[in-house]
Design brief:
single chain, alpha+beta, 4 helices
Length: 147
């Protein structure tokens, strides 16, 4: 079953919840659902208008600092991967951004040299690839750096 919309659409929390609950990769669905609900409760959630179901996370500045990709593979991003935006203006300081990138890179592995990135980078690992301890660490990181 393809989750791709025929044209970009706004993926609501309710739609994402339904998709994550029925995703064949149960571990990935549960983790995406957990982050979705957490971000929604906290006020950090950014609903997305895209072809594939995804959502964003607001940083301390109130602007998107990361996106959580669809649980289904599409042409550019692995299922359940995380995209981090690295524009220094999205963060309180370059130091804050670099600390976030360093912490996330240890868990999710970004393929390119982070110093050479312009806009952002998608993780090589999915949230489902993380051990329980690493997923818990990930949640602590997003708690520290989100809105």
């Amino acid at each position: 079953m393809s989750l791709k919309a025929k044209k970009p659409k706004l993926w609501s929390v309710d739609e994402l919840e339904r998709i994550y609950k029925t995703t064949p990769n149960k571990k990935l669905g549960e983790r995406l659902l957990y982050v979705l609900k957490w971000a929604d409760r906290k006020g950090s959630l950014i609903e997305d208008r895209r072809y594939y179901p995804q959502f964003g996370l607001r940083g301390k500045s109130g602007i998107r600092i990361m996106s959580f990709w669809s649980p289904e593979k599409h042409h550019t991003n692995p299922p359940g991967s995380v995209h981090i935006f690295i524009n220094p203006q999205l963060y309180a300081s370059t130091k804050e951004r670099d600390m976030l990138l360093e912490k996330l890179n240890k868990l999710l592995h970004f393929s390119d040299d982070l110093d050479k990135l312009n806009l952002g980078k998608t993780s090589e690992k999915s949230l489902a690839d993380l051990s329980e301890d690493d997923f818990s660490t990930f949640l602590g990181i997003i708690e520290e750096y989100s809105y």
